[in-house]
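Researcher: Batch entry, complex prediction.
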Amino acid sequence: MSLTSDKISFLSRVFGTCVLGNDGINVSVCCPNPKCSTYGNSSKKKLIIRVDTDQYHCWVCDLKGRNLSYLLKRHFPRHLSEYLTRFSKKSFKPIDIVEEEILVSVPENFVLLAASLSSKDPDVRSTIRYLSNRGLTSKDLWYFRFGTCTRGRYRRRAIMPSFNADGDLNYFVARTIDDDSKMKYLNAKVPKKDVIFNEINIDWSSELTLVEGPFDLTKCNDNATCLLGSHFSEDYKLFQQIIKNSTPVLMALDPDVKLKTQEYARKLSSYGIRIRMLDLGQFSDVGEMSKLDFACALQKAKEWQPDDRLYNLFDTVKSGSIL
Ligand SMILES: [Zn+2]
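Model: Structure tokens for the complex:
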């Protein structure tokens, strides 16, 4: 199947009937915007989608965008994962991912695991089994768009891609499923401070959970992202977005970085950010917890209060800068 007919068949699954224009490039579908006066009228197909670029525009309500990520996220969320991994223009070819091997080897044989549950390929099966042993369900496989490759250096690795707010790939981690492998993780070569992991999943207007690693995300609540390590500072894009949106934060970092966590809480709160701290109890990281463990800890999370000693210390450091 050509990419165009493949795309049109995808669009008709999402939007219902698609009418392909004489130019062979534009299709018309029903507008999914509930505020549009054509909404619910299946004879009016006023939303035009360019099949090659995915730009879209509704001639009635002026809904438009340069690709379908946001539209799908908003109105057809269950089709988003398939779109991002199969069609999103820049997925797997972002300009800022410089390592050539990544550009070449990931796109060629990336397999979306949630769509391959009945695959006969032994490596694909092992990767699915590995994730399921870590407590992931098929819903998680869809939600996090887990994949693997059947050839090359990403074979027998669980790949977790990350997409920015526009639906472009901005990072990925590829974890080996074999304990004896020398390299546990192969990650995209992008500075971590420039990455907001799966920004596409984030609602900046409600409390955002911060964990250390991408796999921790599979155990916590949905509105969450990870630091890709334990470092975090003002020059991180994530830090800046939190400040810009005044997003309340739930800190769920590992207990072995308690001091750092305090430091981050102090820094964020100096910008007026509300912080809650999650106590991991006997667990050494979120990845070890079950979703239920996390949900219980989440309910008990307490508002962060600068203790006097730390607060004074902080005042000394900050005087003359922001406050
Ligand atoms: Zn419309």
